[in-house]
Amino acid sequence: RFVASLVYSPKTVFGLGGDSRSGRAIFGGWTISPIVTVSSGRPYGYGVSGNAPSATAGGIFGAGGSNRLPNVEPNSLRLPKIANFDLRISRRFRFTETMNLEFLGEGFNIFNRLNVTNLGSTAYTIQGTNLAFAPNAATFGVPSEAGNSIFRERQIQFAVRFHF
Question: How would DSSP label each residue in 66-85?
Answer without folding.
Answer: --BPTTS-TT-EEPPPEEEE
